[in-house]
Amino acid sequence: MLSRRLIRIKAFKTLFAFVGSESDNVNAAQKSLLESCDKVKDLYYFILNISPSLIRVAEEKIAAGMRKFHPTEAEANPNLKFVHNRFAKLLSDDPEFGRYCQKRGLSWGEYEPFVRHIYNSMITKEYYQDYMASGEDSFEEDCRLFSCIFQDEFEDNEELDSLLEDMSLLWIDDVAYALNVIIAGIAETSRKKRIHHPSTFVKEDDKEFALRLFTEAAVRYDDYFKLIESHLDNWKSDRLVSTDACLIVMGITEAVVFPTIPVKVTINEYVEISKYYSTPNSRIFVNGILDRIIQEKIKEGEVTKQGRGLFEQ
Question: Are 75 and 65 in contact (CB under 8 A)?
Fold first, then answer.
């Protein structure tokens, strides 16, 4: 589930917190790193689990309309297409999905006002109205509807961001990524007719990559920080942005410790991360210092790569 970039971001945040706390408990920090990775999977399941809740809101609205003494034509003869949505039913009936959500407490029961807000918003949208009016009746169409719901209603939703921030500080930066995985997972469900259950790590060595990247960076931090200081031209170390220091230390660590990752990839990744987690000028600074130090370590033989093209800049 987690991309290598997101793994790097998680490791960076863990290192930043570890250095800031002045702790020497690497094991506790490793546990925190893995927890933050697992939380992305929890977020995926939690957001996706709103699907059956939306169906329940629709059923309640239909039932309330039919109980009226003088219902309208639409209330007396409701369009049941949405409440019969096959994707939502498949999700509700999936035992693995249900067990995971129950075990991790990923329920929308406490957030009924938000569920109703999403429902009331989506029924006004053209994509929903087209779905309800369409003569097509297929599993693929049912899946497409929920893709539209997650894209249109959840992206850049300040109310959702506030709700998630109250639930877990680890979630707020991962919403966009989780939504992308959800939409990709719905597309896979549409093709394979079964619910997509992602693992936290796409490959087993991704977990090893996360732990080793953080651990080696934590162990080498003091030495690499001094190395960075030695490359600060007309710049005092106390003016060095702490996020930049962590990113550069991680970049050096990755270049030294992982022989199969190209130098160009390593530098580009930490420059990109700096754009979101540091100052406006950090990308230039991180790129310059990291490139200079890695080039020195290549000449010294400390950075060695396996395979053609891995040193390309």
Answer: yes
Query: Could you tell me the pTM of the whole model?
Result: 0.91
Q: Which CATH superfamily is domain 204-300 in?
A: NusB-like (1.10.940.10)
Contact 75, 68 (CB under 8 A): yes
**C-alpha pair distances (Å), 67 with each of 37, 71, 80, 281:** 47, 8, 16, 63
Predicted pLDDT at 266: 97
pLDDT higher than threshold 50 for residue 111 = yes
- Yes or no: say if 249 and 273 are a contact pair by the CB < 8 Å rule: no
Tell me how far apart the alpha carbons of residues 167 and 174 are, in angstroms, rounded to a whole number.
13
What tokens were used for 219? 């162990």
Asked if 35 and 10 count as a contact pair (C-beta separation under 8 A), the reply is no
**Which pLDDT band holds residue 238 (cuts at 50, 70, 90)?**
low
Which H/E stretch holds residue 104? helix 95-104
Angstrom distance (rounded) from CA 92 to CA 113: 21
Domain borders along the chain are 4-192, 204-300
Stretch 1-30: mean pLDDT, rounded?
A: 95
Identify the CA nearest to 205 among candidates 159, 243, 260.
260
* Block residue for tokens 């130098």: 263
257 three-class SS = helix
Cβ–Cβ under 8 Å, residues 97 and 197: yes
pLDDT at 313 over 50: no
| Cβ neighbours of 269 (radius 10 Å) | 19
Give dist(CA 212, CA 20) in Å, integer.
Answer: 20
